[in-house]
């Protein structure tokens, strides 16, 4: 079974909705210049930051090696009666700012599991599990997190829904459809596609292109050949660099890539395992201190895993 364009669109929308919709305060609401592109509170203890973030040539070389490994990977085959299970571990920063601009908050994790049936006649299943806050920043953050957790408990921390073709959310409200079939099969053309944002915006910066690439990778259903082309397109970004040779996200180790950020306070990083070509996830990291939030803090993240399973809840 190969996912259709509407199915891929639905899966992307599900991930975007569940990892970017906080129960309370969003980074934008507290004026953190953090586009909530997810990635792992438990990330990184042992990451080594390279001086100067590393040259573009070296980053491109590593990305092209990952592309070669990706081409050799087999795409999953989902038979009738089986499911493609896509698991997204994510967290977002929930914060607030007082009258003086002092920012406090906490990191709230969640797990979203989606079972995509091999038989198109079967319903998709989605299970979203909220989890208690894991990191706290500033006075009152723990108390705020506890209040929000109590509200989540009242609603139910595990939500299971079923729908045809993954129609759990309204796709138009989440930016419309993006057809992976439109992704060009050559790196220069794919880069132009990334810069166009699929026609959804006018920002052609390296950061916007990397952000769009991360969105395409979120869903976990790109073919190996598409992922390989995307890696090579990212390698063509002039400001691409390695920010961490070793980055641990959701217990998996890879290399963190980023570009020259356009914002003053944060940086998007995508995490790839160069040895296998596997896409692990992405994270948003502060580059300057903002109130009680130190520089170098992961304020959002997503980590994606896919596997073929024989049943769904």
Task: Give structural notes.
This is CU044_5270 family protein. The chain crosses the membrane at residues 29-50. It is a single chain. With 313 residues, the protein is an alpha+beta fold. Strands 1, 2, 3, 4, 5, 6, 7, 8, 9 and 10 form a 10-stranded antiparallel β-sheet that branches. The two termini are 20 Å apart. The protein has one domain (5-309). 48% of the residues are buried. The model is unreliable at 18-54 and 170-177 (pLDDT under 50). It has helices at 5-20, 56-71, 141-155, 187-196, 206-218, 224-235, and strands at residues 83-97, 103-117, 124-130, 135-137, 158-163, 241-249, 252-258, 266-273, 278-286, 298-309. The chain contains 6 helices and 10 strands.
* C-alpha Rg (nearest Å): 19 Å
Largest sheet descriptor: 10 strands, antiparallel
What is the H/E order? HHEEEEHEHHHEEEEE
Which stretches are low in confidence, meaning pLDDT under 50 for 5 or more residues running?
18-54, 170-177
Which strand-content bin applies to the residues? 25-35%
In helices, the fraction of residues equals: 25-40%
Amino- and carboxy-terminal Cα gap: 20 Å
Total helix count?
6
Approximate shape: globular
Specify the structural class. Answer: alpha+beta
Transmembrane segments: 29-50
Keywords: Membrane, Transmembrane, Transmembrane helix
Organism: Homoserinimonas hongtaonis
Protein name: CU044_5270 family protein
């Amino acid at each position: 079974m190969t996912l259709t364009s509407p199915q891929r669109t639905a899966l992307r929308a599900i991930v975007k909705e569940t990892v970017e919709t906080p129960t309370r305060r969003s980074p934008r609401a507290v004026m953190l210049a953090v586009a909530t592109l997810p990635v792992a509170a438990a990330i990184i203890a042992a990451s080594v930051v390279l001086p100067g973030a590393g040259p573009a040539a070296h980053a491109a070389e590593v990305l092209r090696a990952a592309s070669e490994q990706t081409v050799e990977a087999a795409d999953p085959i989902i038979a009738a009666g089986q499911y493609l299970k896509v698991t997204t571990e994510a967290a977002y920063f929930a914060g607030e700012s007082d009258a003086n601009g002092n920012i406090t908050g906490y990191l709230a994790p969640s797990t979203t599991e989606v079972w995509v049936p091999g038989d198109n006649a079967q319903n998709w299943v989605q299970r979203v599990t909220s989890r208690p806050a894991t990191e706290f920043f500033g006075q009152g953050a723990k108390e705020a997190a506890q209040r929000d957790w109590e509200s989540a408990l009242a609603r139910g921390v595990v939500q299971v829904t079923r729908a045809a073709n993954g129609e759990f959310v309204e796709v138009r409200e989440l930016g419309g459809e993006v057809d992976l079939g439109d992704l060009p099969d050559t790196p220069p053309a794919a880069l132009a596609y990334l810069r166009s944002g699929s026609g959804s915006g006018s920002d052609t910066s390296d950061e916007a292109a990397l952000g769009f690439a991360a969105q395409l990778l979120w869903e976990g259903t790109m073919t190996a050949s598409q992922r390989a082309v995307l890696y090579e397109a990212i390698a063509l970004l002039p400001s691409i660099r390695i920010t961490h040779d070793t980055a641990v996200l959701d217990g998996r180790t890879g290399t963190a890539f980023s570009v020259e950020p356009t914002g003053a306070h944060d940086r998007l990083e995508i995490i790839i395992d160069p040895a296998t070509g596997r896409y692990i996830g992405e994270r948003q990291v502060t580059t300057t201190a903002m109130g009680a939030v130190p520089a170098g803090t992961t304020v959002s993240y997503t980590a994606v895993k896919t596997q073929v399973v024989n049943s769904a809840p």
